[in-house]
Amino acid sequence: MLSFSWKITYFIVLSGAFVILALVGASYQNTSGIFYSLIYFLVLFVVLFGLFVGKRFSRPLKRIAKAANELAEGNVKSRANVAGSDEMGQLAASLNKIAQAMEKTHQEKETLKHSVAMKVSFIVRPLHDTIEALEQKAKNRTMEFHKANEVAEKMQIDLLLKEAELVDLKGQMAKLMVRKSKKMITEEV
C-alpha cells in the first residue's frame, strides 16, 4: 500500500506527464533537440516537485496520526506538533485540545481516586484499630486461659495427691482402730 506522500507524488507526476504529453502532441511536427531537452528537464522538475509536495503534505499528517495513535494507546501527554492555520494546523489544534481534555480528565480521575482512597482509609482506620484491640484482647484472654488451665491441672494433680494421702491416712487409721480394738479386747479379757 502506498503512503500518503507517494499518493500525492503519483498524482502530481501523472498530471505533469499529461501536460508534457499534451505539449509533445501539440508540437510533434516542430520538435527539436532543445525541445526534447526541455521536456526532459520538465519531467525531472515534475517528479521532484511531486516528491517535495508529497513529503510536505504528508509530514504533518504523519505527526497527527502518530499523536492520535499514542492517545489511543493511553498516552494522554501526546501532542501533534504541527504549526499553521491551514486545515492541517486546525486538525492538529483540535487533536491537541482533545488530548488536553483527556489529560485533564485523567488527572481529575487520579485526584478523585486518591481522595476516595483517603476517605476509605479515614473510615476504615477506626475499624482497623478496633480489630487490632480485639485481637490483642483475644491473645490476652487466650494466655489467661492457658495459665488458668495450667493452674487447674496443677490443682488437679495436688487434689489427686491429697486424695492419695487421705486414702493412706484412712488406711493407717483403720489399722490403728484395728489395733486399738484388739488391744481393748485383750485388756478386757
Brief account:
The chain is an all-alpha fold and 189 residues long. The protein has helices spanning 4-26, 33-72, 87-188. It has a domain at 4-113.
Can you tell me about this structure?
The N and C termini lie far apart (143 Å). 87% of the residues lie in helices and 0% in strands. Helix 1 runs antiparallel to helix 2. The longest helix is centred in the last third of the chain and has 102 residues, at 87-188. The chain is an all-alpha fold and 189 residues long. It is a multi-pass membrane protein.
Summarize the helices and strands and which ones pair or pack.
Blueprint: H1 4-26, H2 33-72, H3 87-188
Helix pairs in contact: 1-2, 2-3
Write down the overall geometry.
Answer: rod-shaped
Mean pLDDT: 84
Given the structure, what is the number of helices?
Answer: 3
Into which percent range does the helicity of residues fall?
over 70%
User: Radius of gyration in whole Å, from Cα?
Assistant: 53 Å
End-to-end CA span: 143 Å
| Beta-strand proportion | under 5%
As an assembly, this protein is single chain
SS elements, strand count: 0
Which series of helices and strands comes N to C? HHH
The helix/strand class is mainly alpha
* Largest beta-sheet details: none
